[in-house]
Specification:
Strand content: 15-25%
Distance between the termini: 67 Å
Number of domains: 2
Helix content: 40-55%
CATH architecture of the largest domain: 3-Layer(aba) Sandwich
Order of helices and strands: HHHHHHEEHEHEE
Number of strands: 5
Amino acid sequence: MKKIQNLPKFDRPREKLEQRGVKSLYDEELVAILIGSGIKGKSVLEISKTLTKILKEKRGDVKLSELEKIEGIGRSKACQIIAAIELTKRLISEEEEKINNAKDVEKIVSDLKDKKQEYFVILTLDGANNLIQKHTVFVGTLNQSIVHPREIFANAVADRAASIIFVHNHPSGNLNPSDDDIKTTSRLVKAGNIMGIKVLDHIIISKKGYFSFNDNGLI
C-alpha cells in the first residue's frame, strides 16, 4: 500500500501543488486532494486511482450512488466530488457559450418560456461575443416607467461587457412587440451608445418561439 506519508514531501500531492503548481499534478493526484484521506488498509492514492478510472470511463457523468460504492468514498466525499464535477461543467459551459445569432440566445434563456410573469433578462458579452453572464434584472410588465438604463446597464458595466442583449418573455405566447417594447428598446439602445456598450439585440421569447428586434430591422 502506497501511503502519502511514505512519499518524499516534494512528491505528496498537496505539497507538490504548493511548490510546483496545479499543472504538475497527475489526474490521480488531483483526485487524491479532493478525497483528502484514505481508510484503514487502503491509501488515498489507491482510492483515487480507482475513482479516476471510473471518472474517465464515465467521462465525468457519474451518479452519487456510483461513487458511494467505491471503497473509501462515503456520502460526504461523494457529494464533494459530484459538486466539483458540476462546477467544472458549468464553468466550461460558460466559457464556450458564443452567441452568433438569436437562436443561440433562445437556447440560453429557454427557461423563460414557461414563466407565468414577464422576466427581463440581460446577457453581457465580451468583444468576441462570448457570454460573460446572464442577469435577471426584474420581474414584471415591461414599460418605460419601470425600465431605467441605470439598472439595466449596471451589470454590463460591472462585467466590463463590450455588448449586451436584452431578453424578455411574453407569457401570453404573443411574440409581437408592443409599443412599449419598441419605445423602451429604442431608449436603451441610445443609452448604450452613450455608454459605449452596444445593444446587439432585444429578443422576445415564448412557447411559440422568439422574435428578434435585430432580425426584423428594429435595432
